[in-house]
Specification:
Blueprint lengths: L1 H69 L4 E2 L11 H4 L3 E8 L5 E7 L2 E11 L5 E10 L16 E8 L23 H7 L5 E8 L22 H26 L14
Parallel strand pairs: 1-2, 5-7
Antiparallel strand pairs: 2-4, 2-6, 3-4, 4-5, 6-7
């Protein structure tokens, strides 16, 4: 009888072990899938943090370059031979000078909001001796000063303009669409303004004119805002913290699953 009892216990143990081993295999498969997903998530978060670090380095370099350009000795505004190579990264906010004669009757008012309130930028073409034209943002006029008599340029005669080279602002997702037919302009799109004014050989940039010392007449020049958002360090730290949290969570799950006595707890039920 004793022998029969021992055999029965052995058979019961084998019978119980089969489902338990199957359950364990499923848990291991689930854990492997969980760990692979956790690795991908952590790697992705680390990649985002590293990318933000690189973006921060680029932004700091850009700010330094722009600061150097803004305070540099002005150079002649690029001519037609250099137009094809002009870019925002290499040339925007470069301090330049240009000589020519104002085409005051072809000025264009472009909607603007500045520290002085709502109004317009006065975009006036400057005709150069080589037959080309450069648009100059001569400055800001309040919305109450639409009368050209208050902001017409002096002339006739040659003038020299000093200011910052700026890239055009085509209307699009961030700026309201221009309406040339109605004379409503919301962006400083020099190509579209030139076409509306019948001008050819126009530079693919414009100049934000500097304010002359002691100048008080309209338009008010020198209102260029030079600001670059630089929150990349915060973003990098955020992504890095999330990566650490995700890694810590994955490690906790793995350690908890294989902790001695864990198999007998309800938490080990198949996911």
């Amino acid at each position: 009888m004793g022998h029969v009892s021992h055999g029965s216990e052995h058979d019961a143990d084998v019978a119980a072990r089969g489902p338990a081993e199957a359950l364990t295999r499923r848990k291991i498969a689930w854990l492997i899938a969980f760990d692979l997903a956790a690795i991908l998530i952590v790697a992705g978060l680390i990649a985002l943090a590293v990318w933000q670090v690189h973006r921060r380095a680029y932004k700091l370099d850009l700010i330094a370059r722009v600061e150097a350009r803004v305070h540099a000795v002005p150079i002649p505004a690029p001519g037609p031979a250099d137009w094809a190579g002009i870019s925002a990264a290499a040339d925007e906010y470069r301090r330049v000078t240009a000589m020519g004669e104002w085409l005051g009757d072809r000025s264009t008012l472009v909607k603007a909001v500045t520290e002085l309130g709502e109004g317009y930028w006065v975009m006036t073409p400057l005709a150069r001796d080589d037959g080309t034209t450069i648009f100059v943002n001569r400055g800001f006029v309040p919305a109450t000063e639409r009368d050209p008599a208050s902001w017409q340029p002096p002339g006739p005669g040659p003038v020299t303009v000093t200011g910052l080279l700026r890239m055009p602002e085509p209307s699009g997702a961030f700026l309201r669409a221009n309406d040339p037919a109605s004379g409503r302009w919301y962006s400083r799109d020099v190509g579209a303004i030139a076409a509306a004014r019948g001008l050819e050989k126009v530079a693919p940039y414009f100049i934000d004119a500097e304010r002359a010392s002691g100048e008080r007449r309209l338009p008010v020049a020198g209102l260029t805002v030079i600001a670059f958002s630089n929150s990349h360090l915060v973003y990098a730290l955020t992504w890095g913290a999330l990566a650490l949290m995700a890694a810590a969570g994955a490690i906790f799950v793995n350690l908890d699953l294989f902790r001695p006595g864990r198999s007998g707890r309800a938490g080990l039920r198949e996911p």
